[in-house]
Each structure stands twice: as structure tokens, then as C-alpha cells.
Design brief:
- The structure holds two protein chains of two kinds.
- Chain A is of the alpha/beta class.
- In chain A, strands 6-7-8-3-9-10 form a six-stranded mixed beta sheet, sandwiched between helices.
- Chain A is built from nine helices and ten strands.
- Chain A starts with a strand and ends in a 5-residue tail after the last helix.
- Chain B has one domain.
- The longest helix of chain B is centred in the first third of the chain and has 29 residues.
- The chains are: A alpha/beta, B mainly alpha.
- At the A-B interface, α2, β6 and α3 of A face α1 and α4 of B.
Chain lengths: ~240, ~240
């Protein structure tokens, strides 16, 4: 069953093509990593897929709904953990969870919040204001919040950027625990993160989706020793 | 409802910012108190005239801190997260306005209580004055939404300060415009702040002889234009910030 499908997805900003006619299919429950150097078009792609900006042309079909027609229905079933920590700074962790539960009109909100508190072990920071938390905790809370509506599709934009190795490994554990349950689209600059977590990887350059496959397939295809070399080879067209 | 939920969050953000409370409530209260100690022999400084002036002065800080909240939300990833949620533009705009109205009510009640303690005669007119000033505050909140949608958090300080100064000098709260006359008087008549003050004072005194048809026209033009511009600009910036 296909969770996300794009057909000739294109985004132009004046005379610049940020995303150039991408065709992509992501299966339900798959963890799909989108990689690319800066300016490759992955953030623009994520923003279009999450309904934040509209495509110039092309179609986005999410769980059999077309983004052009059913944008608000689609927004009910997806969630995003943006690159920077996206939580209300003067609110406590509990208030942040309650606020987002209100945004998604969660019926049994106490039950859902308690589930997330348990799953992410948020007890010790529950009554602390978000702005007083460390970067690792803020990111953890941000990801916990993104699960408040039991999304069918979850976008994780650079989820471990700037975190220390222990905080990163902890988040990997959380992301791994979500695999198979929901469809996850992950962007990252860490090659080992993409390799370790994802089922398939798409590589973008200059607005184009230039290759797609499992990490093993991409290593084999480029005849390189590891995934990082495979990525460099694909992203530079074999120049490096 | 999503807008109430959003308003609740905004209210908490504002009320937990000590600086906003100092400028929105403590500073106007201090001015109300201190100017009465000077016993200035001018109509502007009589309690029944100066209390409405202080209400208007407090509103100028409402504009400043509304603008700061919105600019801060825009530049953080917080609005990106909300932008991917099912919230609609009306939820945002009304959520911002609704969150600030309780602060306006608190301002008004505290200003009148202080004025009554200092000798303002308690009349039933205080109730409609509070209601009218809350309607006028929607103009100042919308102006804050407009400024916060247009400029960065740093820029809101500058533009917000201009609004504070314009309120002080063109509303007639400190001195009547005809003392200077000429171009200054035309500027005062063209801006909405004098009209705002005359409406609030007129309601409190139950005497609208200072309020001309031109005042009402100027106020309503600004009121409608600023509300419309704030909605259009906020919606546009929500998209352009995310390009």
C-alpha cells in the first residue's frame, strides 16, 4: 500500500527551479530518508509534502487523498518535527503537549499525553518551561509532540542536528521504535543516520531526485566501500 | 475550538513575559500616579481626562508586544509546526486577538481602580468606557499583528516605539494639538490616535462634544484597513516565510 506518491512534483521560485518534476512512491510504514547537499531541494520537497507550501505543478497524493483538494484532511493525519526545535518556549512540557493536543482536537487527550510521557520518559521535565531544557530534551519533546495526533505520516527534518552522541543514539532508539508503525520521511546530513535508520534512501541534487534505493543497493551500484562514498559519488555525478 | 486553544497559549506566553507586564500595566499605572502628584494645572491632566489617556498609552504597548510575539513565532519553527497542522488563518488571527483582550481588560480595571483610589468619581460610565476601549484595542492588536508580520523581532522594537511616540504626541494626551497648530495639527487629525482618545474620553464623560464626524470616519477607516492588512499580510508571510 502506497502512503505517499508524487507525480511530476515541481516548485519554482521566480526563475529558480527548487524541485524539478519528482516522481516518488513511499510505502506505508516505510522509513524513507531524503539526502542531498545544501540547496538540493529536500527541505522544499518536505514542505510541499507536509502542506506548508504549494507546488508550482504536479500532484501529491497522501493516503489516497490529493493535496490540492483535501489539504486539511491530509493535515489531520500527518505531523512534522521541524529542523529547529518547534515548541512554545514559555510553556511547560505538559502545557506544550496539551496545546498541541488541542490543535489536533484529540478526543482522549489526557490518555494520549500520558502515553507520550511514558514512551519518551518525560516525567522529570514535565513541569519545566521549554526554554529551560537542554537541546537534547527540547528535541525529544519536539518529537514527542509530533506524535500527539497518532500521525500516519511523520516528517523528521534533521532530527538529531546539533545533538551530542548520547542524545543522538537515544533519539535513534525512539525513531527505530516507530519504524513499521508509521510512515517516516527523514532528512539528515548524517550518513550513518540514514544508513542505520532507513529502509530506502532517495538522493537529491539540484532539485532532482537522482537516485533511490537501499543503502546496500546504492553502495553496490556505485562500486564504493561504504555509504558515505556512495552518496558522494551519486551527489557529485561521480566527480569525487 | 482551535482558536481558543491558540489564544490560551498566546495569553500564557504574554503573561509570563515580565517585560510585557511592566510596560503594558506597571508603566502606565506609574504615569497615572506620578502625573497626579505634580498637580499640573491643565485639563489634560485631570483624572477624568488623563485616565483615558493612560488607557490609550497602555494600548500602544499592546501593539509593541503583540508585534514581538508574532515576529518571535514567525522566526521560530513554532509556526512551521502549526503551519502543517489543520489550523486555519482565522484560527491564528482570532487566536492572537482573543489572547490579548483579557490583558486589555486587566489593564482597564487596574487603571480605573487606581484612578478611583486617587479621586476619580465612580460612575456607571466606566463600564461602557471599558467596553468601548476593548473594541478600540482590537485596532491596536491588529496593528501589532501587522507590524509583527512585516518585520523581524528586532524591527518590532523600533516600529513599536514609533507607535508609542505617535500615541503620546498626536493623541492629545499630554498637550492639545492646537498649542502647536499648522502641519502638526493636520498630522494629528489624519492619524487615528486623537479620535481613539476622544471616543474613550467621550464615553467616560458621556459627552461627545469633542468628537467630530471626521474623528469617527478617520478611526473607522484605520480600524478596517489595519484589520484587513494584518490578515492579508499575516497570511502572505506565513507562506513566504516558509519558502
Amino acid at each position: 500500500m502506497i502512503a505517499i506518491e508524487t507525480k511530476k512534483l515541481t516548485k519554482r521560485f521566480k526563475d529558480k527551479i527548487a524541485v524539478n518534476g519528482i516522481d516518488l512512491k513511499i510505502k506505508q510504514g516505510e522509513l524513507f530518508a531524503l539526502l542531498g547537499v545544501n540547496g538540493a531541494g529536500k527541505t522544499t520537497t518536505i514542505k510541499m509534502l507536509s502542506g506548508l507550501i504549494l507546488p508550482t505543478s504536479g500532484d501529491i497524493i497522501i493516503e489516497n487523498m490529493n493535496m490540492n483538494k483535501d489539504i486539511f484532511k491530509i493535515k489531520e493525519i500527518l505531523n512534522v518535527s521541524p529542523q529547529e526545535t518547534a515548541i512554545a518556549q514559555n510553556l511547560t512540557v505538559k502545557e506544550n503537549l496539551e496545546f498541541m493536543a488541542g490543535v489536533y482536537q484529540i478526543k482522549d487527550k489526557e490518555k494520549k499525553i500520558n502515553e507520550l510521557i511514558k514512551e519518551f520518559k518525560l516525567d522529570e521535565v514535565l513541569n519545566k518551561k521549554a526554554k529551560t531544557l537542554s537541546g537534547g530534551w527540547q528535541r525529544k519533546v519536539s518529537i514527542a509532540i509530533s506524535l500527539i495526533n497518532d500521525p500516519k505520516i511523520l516528517f523528521l527534518d534533521e532530527p538529531t542536528l546539533g545533538l551530542d552522541v548520547i542524545a543522538r543514539k537515544e533519539l535513534w532508539k525512539v525513531i527505530n521504535s516507530l519504524k513499521g508503525k508509521i510512515t517516516i520521511i527523514l532528512t539528515t546530513h548524517y550518513m550513518e543516520e540514514a544508513e542505520s535508520l532507513s529502509d530506502r534512501i532517495g538522493i537529491m541534487a539540484n532539485g532532482n531526485l537522482i537516485d533511490i534505493g537501499t543503502s546496500e543497493e546504492l553502495i553496490k551500484k556505485t562500486k564504493t566501500k561504504n555509504f558515505e562514498d556512495a552518496f558522494v559519488s551519486i551527489a557529485t555525478g561521480g566527480e569525487l | 475550538m482551535r482558536m481558543i486553544n491558540f489564544a490560551r497559549r498566546n495569553f500564557k506566553e504574554l503573561i509570563r513575559d515580565p517585560l510585557s507586564l511592566v510596560f503594558e500595566i506597571a508603566l502606565p499605572l506609574f504615569l497615572l500616579f506620578i502625573f497626579q502628584q505634580f498637580n499640573i494645572d491643565a485639563d489634560n491632566y485631570k483624572l477624568e481626562n488623563f485616565t483615558p489617556s493612560i488607557i490609550l498609552f497602555g494600548f500602544s504597548f499592546i501593539t509593541l508586544f503583540t508585534a514581538t510575539l508574532i515576529a518571535k513565532d514567525r522566526t521560530s519553527s513554532f509556526l512551521i509546526r502549526l503551519g502543517t497542522s489543520p489550523m486555519k488563518s482565522s484560527d491564528y488571527i482570532l487566536g492572537y486577538i482573543l489572547s490579548i483582550l483579557p490583558i486589555v481588560l486587566i489593564q482597564n480595571v487596574l487603571f480605573f481602580l487606581t484612578a478611583i483610589i486617587m479621586g476619580l468619581e465612580f460612575t456607571i460610565n466606566i463600564v461602557p468606557t471599558i467596553l468601548v476601549s476593548m473594541i478600540i484595542s482590537i485596532f491596536f492588536i491588529s496593528l501589532g499583528i501587522l507590524i509583527g508580520s512585516l518585520v523581524s523581532e528586532k524591527g518590532t522594537g523600533g516600529l513599536g516605539s514609533i507607535v508609542v511616540q505617535l500615541v503620546c504626541f498626536t493623541s492629545g494626551m499630554y498637550f492639545p494639538k492646537d498649542l502647536i497648530g499648522g502641519v502638526f495639527e493636520i498630522i494629528c487629525k489624519s492619524l487615528p490616535f486623537e479620535a481613539c482618545l476622544n471616543i474613550i474620553q467621550g464615553t467616560l464623560h458621556n459627552d461627545f462634544s469633542n468628537l467630530s464626524a471626521m474623528h469617527i470616519i478617520v478611526f473607522f477607516i484605520y480600524f478596517i484597513v489595519v484589520i484587513l492588512l494584518s490578515i492579508i499580510t499575516f497570511k502572505k508571510r506565513m507562506i513566504s516565510d516558509n519558502k
